[in-house]
Design brief:
Elements (H helix, E strand, L loop, with lengths): L1 E7 L11 H12 L2 E7 L12 H4 L10 H11 L3 E7 L7 H8 L11 E7 L7 H13 L3 E2 L4 E3 L15 H27 L7
Length: about 200
C-alpha cells in the first residue's frame, strides 16, 4: 500500500479548512490505494526559517535547529506521495506551509515523489494561484507535481449538511486526482527502487 501524506497548509485560527480536511481525508482512504497520514501544521511547531547549512550539522546524520525538524524530515520521508491542502493568502501559499517545505533540508526526503493539491478560498478563485506557486516550489524540492487538482471556491458554502461538496465536479476532480496520485506514486516508487541518479545538489 502507498503511504500518502496529506499536509494541511494552514495553522491559522478560524481557518476555512474545517470541512475540506475530513472530506478529502475520507476520500483518500476510500480510494483503497493509500495508507493515509494527515500532517496538520497546527501540530508541528517548526522554527520559522530556522534551517541553514550551519544548523544541519553532518548532512549524513543531520541534527537541524531543533529535534522537531528532524522528526518532520523523518515523517515526510515515509511518504510515497503528498497531497497538499492549501488556502490562498495574497495570491500564494501560507508562510507556514512554505516554511514546512523548506524545513526538509539536505535529506532529499521528497525526491521523485508525486505531489497533488487541494486549493480552497472564500472567493471564486478557489486557491488556483496558491496551487500555481506551490507547483513551482514542488519542482525545486524535486517532487513531481501533478496537473490535476481539486479547486474549491467559495469554501464557506461549498459543502452540504453531510459533509460532501455541493458541486459534483469537485467530487469528480478528487477521483481524478486520487487515481493520478496512485498511478504516479506506484511507478515512481518502482523507479526509486531500481535506482536513481544522485541529487544535483
Amino acid at each position: 500500500m502507498l503511504n500518502l501524506k496529506i499536509i494541511i497548509g494552514s495553522n491559522r485560527p478560524g481557518r476555512a479548512a474545517g470541512e475540506v480536511i475530513p472530506w478529502i481525508t475520507a476520500a483518500a482512504r476510500d480510494h483503497g490505494a493509500f495508507g493515509v497520514d494527515v500532517l496538520d501544521l497546527r501540530e508541528w511547531q517548526l522554527p520559522m526559517f530556522g534551517e541553514t547549512l550551519a544548523t544541519v550539522g553532518d548532512p549524513k546524520n543531520p541534527v537541524f535547529s531543533a529535534p522537531v525538524v528532524k522528526q518532520w524530515n523523518s515523517k515526510v520521508a515515509e511518504g510515497d506521495a503528498y497531497l497538499f491542502v492549501t488556502p490562498e493568502y495574497n495570491h500564494s501559499i501560507p508562510a507556514v506551509l512554505k516554511n514546512a517545505i523548506d524545513s526538509v533540508f539536505t535529506t532529499f526526503a521528497r525526491r521523485g515523489k508525486p505531489a497533488g493539491y487541494v486549493g480552497y478560498s472564500g472567493g471564486i478563485g478557489g486557491g488556483i494561484r496558491a496551487i500555481e506557486h506551490l507547483a513551482h516550489v514542488a519542482i525545486e524540492a524535486e517532487m513531481v507535481p501533478l496537473r490535476n487538482s481539486v479547486i474549491i471556491p467559495t469554501v464557506h458554502s461549498a459543502f452540504g449538511p453531510g459533509g460532501q461538496p455541493n458541486d459534483p465536479r469537485t467530487i469528480a476532480a478528487a477521483q481524478i486526482l486520487r487515481d493520478d496520485l496512485g498511478w504516479r506514486a506506484t511507478g515512481l516508487r518502482q523507479a526509486r527502487a531500481a535506482g536513481a541518479p544522485p541529487p544535483a545538489a
